[in-house]
Amino acid sequence: MDFDKILEKCGNAGRYQYLMILLLGYIAFTTTVHYYSQNIIGFVPQHWCYHEQLVDRSFEEIAAVYAPFGKDASCTRLEKIEGNNLTVSSKACQRWIYKYDYGFRSMNAELNWVCDDAYKARIGQSLFFLGSLLGTFTFGMLGDRIGRVRAVILANQCGFVGDFLTTYATNLVQFAIFRCISGLAATANYYLMFILVLEYLAPKLRNLAISGTLGICFCLGALVAPWLSVLAGNWRIYLTCSALLQLVVALFYFVVQESAQWLITRTNVEGAIARLKHIAHFNGRQVPAADFEAFRRNCIAKRKLSNQPEQTAGIIDLLRTPNLRKISLLVVLIFMLTSLSFNTISRNVEGLGMSPFVVFSLFAVVVPPSGFIQGLLQSRVGRKATAFLAMLCTGLLSCALGVALSTEGAHSSVTLLLSFALPMRLGISLSYTVTSQYASELLPTCVRSRGIAAVHLAAAGASFLSPYLIHLGTKLAAATSLILALLLLTASFCTLMLPETNNRQLPITLADGEAFGKGESMLSFDCWRRHDDDVSKQPAEELKLQPINGQQPAKPATEAEV
């Protein structure tokens, strides 16, 4: 009785699984609000240096006064205003007139972090990403040591504490420290829950159901984030709302069951059986005690046959054997390229000729279609083909935009920019989510949490370049798009060297990971594979993983499609 079969008896597509999908959707929603908070609190509204003669004038009149100074208008201090005769002061501007976009008072406006002090907000953003690096690594390690559920809760509570403390920041030092604490949850608060949910789902729920749910919840988060800030009217109130959303995750401890597969890798078979019994009860299933006993014996037998003590396996073990090393390094490279592209495209909401709040909303609208497209494509052509096509098409769109922007006057056309920006946002959302799921499936369960943490750690490091890529576009309009095209086309080619995971039984042990996908060609897509050519006499949903080193043990006992 292996894990797949006992989970099927307990229910792998029942009430508990749908509850888990809904809870993952809530995590996706809160993660999106938290992720974009760093952008939203730092919006810089249109502003001009304060002068007493401009107090009673309209914003249009003030803009006309400062128009002769061009790009320097926001930081130019006037000493005298006599009709059209303007006298520039030699003193630095200390006070500004702000034209608040939809009435939202951002952190930069409230603390006057503009002009010569604009660097302060960027330092805070850098510390946020530094926190993301530390949190990704720390909670990834904790996920494999103390369990997925506790790690998910701790990560979200760090986000709560960081956002809540930030609302009391009045200087750069406080702001930087608090944003670093908030950043600890920037990635870990989602991917750990994603891993946990995948480990309990039937294959039929891993495509359209989970992708569609995530698409809708990511969309809601991206829609709510900017307009919640408008409703709040102030960045401090907005961050308080973001913090409270993450505080709710603490209640997951009373609902979500720890990963049974993780417990098995820690030799805690009894704990795994206890979780499976709870799931069976929740799903209204009656499972005979003899089935649990057969599962217990199978786990013990597999443990004796294992050459590697999985409970002590670490990230370095992913690099010890050639096939698993190739897969792991490719996963890291692909996710780095995809993450850098995702952060650059999704965060580039200013400079498109429209309010950033409106651009955020337009970007959010394309997220649900990307989720449903992902689900449909994955079930028909597999993970590998879906990832390859998404990256290839987005890369070609980015290349076309770069060529268009190289022509004179193209950067001033709002219609042209949006006609490329929206499909690219759809494509990069699809690329990022399918790559995230694909990476989770390729790494063995025994080191999955730490392995995915290392992958996200590398991706967070690559994302440091995102602001510079966006800034490069202000100097050379076509440069950002052409660089993104190169990154995505490279990632699409690397994807071809990975094995397919759709309709396959995925690896739990390191030996399984080494054997997984051996012999597959670069063009071995799931849609071209004859499913009846899988391992003889096995269900189409399974693919028996052959052992390495010439051993021939019995059928793997605890491997499950996660």
Automatic annotation (TrEMBL):
Q: Which InterPro entries match?
A: MFS_dom, MFS_sugar_transport-like, MFS_trans_sf
Q: Taking every annotated instance into account, which residue ranges of this chain make up the domain Major facilitator superfamily (MFS) profile?
A: 23-502
Q: How does it sit in the membrane?
A: Multi-pass membrane protein
- SUPFAM superfamilies the record matches: MFS general substrate transporter
- Would you tell me the Gene Ontology cellular component terms? membrane
List the subcellular locations. Answer: Membrane
Transmembrane region positions?
16-36, 123-142, 176-201, 208-229, 235-256, 327-346, 352-373, 385-405, 476-498
| UniProt keywords, alphabetically | Membrane, Transmembrane, Transmembrane helix
Q: Which PROSITE patterns match?
A: MFS (PS50850)
Q: What is this protein called?
A: Solute carrier family 22 member 6
Q: Which organism is it from?
A: Drosophila madeirensis
The taxonomy runs: Eukaryota, Metazoa, Ecdysozoa, Arthropoda, Hexapoda
